[in-house]
Each structure stands twice: as structure tokens, then as C-alpha cells.
Amino acid sequence: MGKRISQGVPHSSHWGAFSVQSHGDELEVTPHPCDPMPSPILPNLNDAASPDCRIGQPMIRRGWLDNGPGPDTSRGKDAFVPVSWERAYDHLANELQRIVDRYSNEAVFGGSYGWSSAGRFHHAQSQIHRFLNTTLGGYCRSVGNYSAGAAQVIAPHVFGTLEETNRKSPIWGPMLSNTELVVSFGGMALKNSSVSGGGNSNHNVAGVFDRLQDRGVRFVLFSPLRADLPEWIRAEWHAIRPATDTAVMLALAHVLIVEDLLDRAFLAKHCVGFDRFEAYIRGQSDGIAKTPGWAELIAQLPAADIIDLARDMAARRTLITVSQSVQRAEHGEQPVWAAITLAAMLGQIGLPGGGFSYGLGSIGNVGKPPVAVPLPTLSQGKNGARGFIPVARISDMLLHPGKPFSFNGQKLVYPDVKLVYWAGGNPFHHQQDLTRLAEAFSRPDTIVVHEPYWTSSARHADIVLPATITMERDDIGAAGNDPKMITMRKAIEPFQQTKDEYEIFSELAQRLDRHQEFTEGRTAREWMAFIYETTRVALAERDLPAPDFDEFWAAGELEVPTTDRLSILEKFRQDPQGAPLPTPSGKIEIFSEVIAGFGYDDCAGHPAWFEPEEWLGGEIVERFPIQLVANQPAFRLHSQLDFGRASLGSKIAGREPLTIHPDTAKARGIVQGSIVRVFNDRGSFLAGANISDAIRRDVIQIATGAWYDPQDIVPFGTVCVHGNPNTVTRDRGTSSLAQGSTGQLSMVDVELFHGPLPELRCHKPPRLDA
Ligand SMILES: Nc1nc2c(c(=O)[nH]1)N[C@H]1C(S)=C(S)[C@@H](COP(=O)(O)OP(=O)(O)OC[C@H]3O[C@@H](n4cnc5c(=O)[nH]c(N)nc54)[C@H](O)[C@@H]3O)O[C@H]1N2
Ligand SMILES: Nc1nc2c(c(=O)[nH]1)N[C@H]1C(S)=C(S)[C@@H](COP(=O)(O)OP(=O)(O)OC[C@H]3O[C@@H](n4cnc5c(=O)[nH]c(N)nc54)[C@H](O)[C@@H]3O)O[C@H]1N2
Ligand SMILES: [Mo]
Binning pLDDT at 50, 70 and 90, where does residue 3 land? Predict the structure, then answer.
């Protein structure tokens, strides 16, 4: 171990607040002393500074350097040439100028989706968007995210934005003293709340479960995995077929209707369109009553259980939760809308600890009280270009320029993108059907990626600029539902020639004659003090301690107030006329004239059951009999720091672990620790088997985020030898309404892998040419 060069300095991350000391190349990360349950992912940061796959210098792909910009199928396989920053800046500035002059701003795709790192100033997406707006005048953008693609489009039509209805109200607190029954679709796996966008100084969720358990709250879990609620919660576990939650909810609604257990007064006063939904549930509109018996055949859940549960839901203070995963699937809009409807039928929306909650437990800070002052925010400028896509339609866009598609009532056309610019995300992690994405990435003239590490996305780029990690720069850490603002102090010198996004974009802006527009004449430090000022003023206005920036910096952290004002749903409950919901009618829309007016055949005017194409009840089982759940990793954030100790420690023979039921394993000769191959028509990957009976028999589970490592294996063709499930997931939108990602579920088969185990290449740099 090298010489200690720093004492512990405060810092923050999506995994929580911590302090960091450096010992030569090694980092030592210690959780914030106030955090009751530090994230098990934090130790990955110890290995963040100088892994083999760190990028230390600007790189240009051999083929691009030799042949110039243009479509090229050798992306992802080609060697890279290390170049000076000057040379990289010149090439990139010229290419940006060429694309905008020859085509248009719409030809530059700066969507750049991704979680990047915590930090309010060096936030890569904010930086790149600000750069593209202020220097080029705009870019083709992406809207929405992978997390909530379906929910975030349907919610404003029928309930109000998720931001308003979900993020701006405390949920856990009122649950502690009021909730009697939690009905959870998709669960609230503790692993998921160990991560929070922007930071978390107080991982509170395990503590909340303890207290709810002590109070004897009844938990009912609908999920293919038992671990989607903490094991010590004595939850009743219903491992229904994945993608059938809507059918169960409709059948619960049927029981409430026929047994007259619903709150007709609430429906009349606070909702519109219940009559249309009731006609559908009773089978008057389509000839099929959505009875518990009907749902039993779809979801494989005994009808008697549905009846019992509906009665109990009507009798007690009930919170219905829907995880993000449940809507990251075909027709993902429906379970969200159906759950809102069910909660409305119970008449419990706006009651403390009752009603409906989206994404509670899916992510760390949801449900904690919202911060009451504005947080430091970097302005992104104005985007002068109009083109956009729903975020998960990236491959469609690159493969089919000019093709029309539907989105949220609009008829749009895919723009003709010539340059793709990414900073702070990993599309070769997040996008479905990676073979298709690789083909899509062969189409543009130029691909630019900023990355600290040789991710698969960096390997598919032409120009790769090496970014610092947060511990190599100063920043401000803060998040919308956490009571602490934290100084993220630089703990180590930047690795080799790496630079932060602000410096990179400032240099490029200089070459594009827009330096002043991008920087406004401020250094990074001056920007931080400038954006901090918004928060300071708001604190002062509330007569709270409001230290200036230097005082805040010296103190290391600052308490920010959280709000206890009535949530939008509580106000609406009390006074639906005076405090209407932000929907077209001001009420909960159980029937939406707007959505019905779009005339889609894959989304009706009320919540409805649509049979998916890839599910256990479909014809597809004859060829691919197993449902793959590709969920969030317990020991990583997405693909980040996959080479770190916590992530590596979870692997089996270096491969991503896959959960499989003993019967399914046995039928295929698979035992604990076997290497297996998972496959369908789209591709295949290798993984290491973990046998467990805490999973539904015909479901297997693998987390997302193992770095993509495609290698040719006879006779299978290209196989990801490391275990990236997006080799087999399907690239289609949730529906014409939201076009959200459907990455959570796909149909596959699994077999024992017999061949010699290929060596992993993904955590090593690609071939470099001198
Ligand atoms: N099959 C399937 N696929 C899924 C999902 C699923 O459930 N199933 N879930 C989806 C969801 S919900 C999400 S949110 C996405 C996540 O997808 P992403 O957000 O794209 O995944 P990350 O691995 O967090 O990628 C962030 C990248 O930013 C880099 N980075 C970190 N800090 C910096 C910085 O300061 N500068 C620069 N330039 N780069 C930086 C990291 O090294 C990393 O490569 O995945 C989606 N994909
Ligand atoms: N440790 C860790 N935590 C994370 C992240 C991470 O990368 N690592 N990512 C964060 C991000 S960006 C997001 S968006 C959230 C995502 O939050 P979620 O989407 O809620 O998380 P997942 O783990 O993908 O899925 C939760 C569970 O849903 C269950 N499930 C899958 N399909 C179905 C279905 O059809 N019906 C039912 N009832 N259940 C189903 C699966 O068993 C799965 O374990 O997680 C956040 N938390
Ligand atoms: Mo997400």
C-alpha cells in the first residue's frame, strides 16, 4: 500500500454519503456515521481509481482516424489510437461543426441517457446538454427514462405527474402509524433502496420494515422472487406469472364491485369514468367478466386468494405499491393505471398510509420527506432543435431514420442522426437487444463517448475522452428527498490525463467560438458557489442557518429542511374542487377521454388486460418455456464499477449469477455453480447458476449490468460470455402510448454449458495501436 496522502474527506455518491482516504492507488471508503444502513455497494468505490479498464488518455478509433467519419461495422471490434487532448479536441470540434453545417442540429443526438455520478455541478448529462445548447444551438434529445418509461407517460393523464404525486410527499412516515395492509406488486427489495440518485445520508427502509413488522402489518407480495420483500417480513408470497399483475388487479376490482365493497362516494366525487371501467369489469363491454376465476387462469393464483384479499383490502387501511419493474414490460402502463383505480375504488387515496404508491422501495429516497428548498442546479440553456425520441427508442431511431412512430398521442418521425454524443451513460448496458444496438451504432458518421472506464459503449465509439471520477474533483452532493447537502471534496489527483466534463466542454466551446456562452466566465469553483446561492437564499428566507459557500465547504455538510406540508393527494381528498389534480378533468381519470381519443389498439381508455407476446401463458412457451427476469443488481448500480470488489464477489467463476429453481435446474442437469447458457432467437449469454426455491419454477433471474463481453463460440455464434441479459431482451416499446423500455421480462430457455470457459475480456482495455 502506498503513502497516505489525504485524511478522510467528505464525499457522496448514489450509494450514499461517505468519507474517503487515499493510500496511493487504493481508496478507503467509510460510510457516513449517521447512516443507519450503509449500502453494500459502497465498497466498489475502493477499486474505482485505477482499475485495468480505466481510460487515461484521449483515444480515437483506428478506422475513424484512417478513413474519416462514416458508417462502419467495425465499431466495437476495432483498435484505438491514443492521441493528445489537442488532437482530440480539434477532430471533435471540426466534426461537430461539419455535422451541424452539412445537416442540422437534429443530426446530433445528445440524449446521453444515464445515471452518471452524483454531484450537482459535474453532472455529466447537465454538462453535455448545456454544452450542446450553448455552443451548437441545440440537439436531438431523448425524453423520459428507462426507470419509469410507461408510468411517467400515463400518470399525468390520469393521476398527476409522478413528481407531484409521488416524490413530493412523505410516504414511509404516515405508513408507520396508519397502514394495516400492504399489497405490493413487484415488491420492495432492500437491495434496491441501497441506491438513490444524487445521494442518501440515511438509508431508512430496513428500519421502516422493522417497525411495520412490529406493528403486525400484513404484507402481501406479488412477485416471482421471494426476496422482493425482506425475508424477516412474514409476507404472504404469491409467485404469479410475471406480466399478469393487471389481471389480478382487475379481478380484485371485480370482487369489490360484486360484493359492493367499494367507496361509491369517493368515486363520484374524486374520479371520472368509473362507469365505463365497471362495464368492462362486469364483461358488459367485451363479453368477458374479469372474475377471480378468469384471473386465476391468467396469473395462476387461486381465485379464493383473490376474493379473500379483496375483502381484507376493503376492511383495512391498505397501501397498494407498484414497483418500477412491473411497468418496465409490455403494456406496462396498465398495472400502474389499474392500481390507481383499485386504490380509488377503496376510497383510500389521500389517506395517510393508504392508497397507491409507485416505486416505493424501488429506489432509496422515494417515500422520505421532500426537501423544502431548491437545490443547486446547473442551467442547461435552450435547445433550439425540435427533434426527440422516447429514450428507449434509440436503436429504432438509428436504424430507421424517417420512419413514423406513435408516442403519447403524437405521430412522430425518427430523425436522421449522424453524430451520437454520450457522457454519463452506458447504452450497451441499458438498451435492450444489444446485437440490434450494435448494428444501430454502425450507422452514424461519428460516435463520441466520455467515460472514466472502457465500458462497452466506449468500445463502440470513435472518439473516447477520458473523464475523471467524482473523487478526483470537487462537487456538491444533494438529492430531492434527503436532509443533507454534502461537500464532495476531491480526494485524489485525476488519473493520468483525465479531465472533468466542464473542462472538456470549455475547451471544445473555445474552439467553436462559444467559450463565453458555455462558461459565462466562471471557473468550476465559481459555478459551484453560484448555483449554491439559490439554496442559501432560500434557507435565509426561512430564517434557517444559511452559511455562505466557503463556510459550507469548510463545514463539510449542511442540513436542509424537509417539508411536512399536506401532499397534493391529501389536499385533493379534502377539497377536490379547490385543489384539483393536474389531470385534464382535475380528478382521477379511470376513463381518460384523451387516451381513448388517441385511438391506439394497444392502450384503451381505461385500464385493461392486454395479453403480452412474451409471457408464460403464450404460444412462445413451446420454443422458449422460461421467463427471464432481468432486474437490478444487488451488488452494483447498473453497470457501474462492475470490476469493484462487491460486484466481483457476487460472481460465479467470474460470470454473473443466475437464480434458478431446483426443479428447472434438475431437469437440465444444472447444479449449484454450473455454467449455463441462456438463449432465445435474439442471442445468448453465459452465467453461473445459483439454485434457489425462492423463485417461481418457470422463471429464472439475472441482474442487469455485467459488462457486455461478446465472443464467438461454435456452434452458438456470438455469446456474451459474462452474463449481460440485454443480449436476449426484446427491443420494443411498452405500447404506442409511452414507448417505454420493456427490458425486465423476456422468454428464453436455459441449458448447461459444456465448452471450455472463455476468458473474460470486458474488464481489460481494448487493443491499442501506438
Ligand atoms: N434488461 C434490462 N435493462 C435495463 C433495466 C432492466 O430492468 N432490465 N433497467 C433500466 C434502468 S431502470 C436504467 S436506469 C438503466 C441504467 O442505465 P445507465 O444509467 O446507462 O447505467 P450506468 O451503468 O449507471 O451508466 C452510467 C455510466 O456513466 C459513467 N460515469 C460515471 N460518472 C461519470 C462522469 O462523471 N462522467 C462521465 N462521462 N461518465 C461517468 C459510468 O462509468 C457508467 O458507465 O438501465 C436500464 N436497462
Ligand atoms: N442495488 C441496486 N438498486 C437499484 C438499482 C441498481 O442498479 N442496483 N437501480 C435503481 C434504478 S435506476 C431503478 S429504476 C430502480 C428499479 O426498481 P425496480 O424496477 O422495482 O427493480 P427491479 O430489481 O428491476 O425489479 C424488482 C422486482 O420486480 C419483480 N418483477 C419482475 N417482473 C415482475 C412482474 O411482472 N410482476 C411482479 N409482480 N413482479 C415482477 C422481480 O422479481 C424484481 O426483483 O432500482 C434502483 N435501485
Ligand atoms: Mo432506473
Answer: very low
The answer to whether the CB of 642 is under 6 A from ligand 2 is no
Nearest alpha-carbon partner for 584 in 593, 575, 572, 573: 593
Residue 131, in any domain of the structure:
no
Atom of ligand 1 nearest to the CA of 469: 35
**pLDDT value at 4 more than 80:** no
Query: CATH number, domain at 737?
Result: 2.40.40.20
At 297-324, the pLDDT tens digits run: 999 999 999 999 999 999 999 999 999 9
What is the tens place of the pLDDT at every residue in 508-528? 999 999 999 999 999 999 999
Provide the CA 55 distance to its chain's centre, in angstroms: 25
Q: What is the 3-state secondary structure (H, E, C) of 521-560?
A: CCCHHHHHHHHHHHHHHHHHHCCCCCCCHHHHHHHCEEEC
Question: Is the residue at 87 inside a domain?
Answer: no
Asked if residue 253 belongs to a domain, the reply is yes
- Domain boundary (330, 347, 370) is at 370
The residue contributing the CA closest to ligand 1 atom 24 is 115
In testing the pocket of ligand 1, which one of 704, 728, 734 has its CB within 8 Å of the most ligand atoms? 704
Which bound ligand lies closest to the C-alpha atom of 203? Answer: 2
| Centroid of ligand 2 to alpha carbon of 192 (angstroms) | 7
Beta-carbon neighbours within 5 Å of ion ligand 3: 147
346 part of a folded domain = yes
Structural domain for 726, as ranges? 619-752
Number of compact structural domains in the chain: 2
Active site residues: 113, 115
Whole-number average pLDDT of the chain: 97
Q: Which ligand is nearest to the CA of 224?
A: 2
Check which CATH number belongs to the domain holding 219 and give it. Answer: 3.40.228.10
Alpha carbons within 13 angstroms on the beta-carbon side of residue 445 total: 17
Alpha-carbon distance of 449 to 489, in angstroms, equals 25
Distance CA 633, CA 284 (A): 44
Q: What is the pTM of this model?
A: 0.97
> Does ligand 2 come within 6 angstroms of the Cβ of 31?
no
pLDDT in tens, 623-634: 999 999 999 999
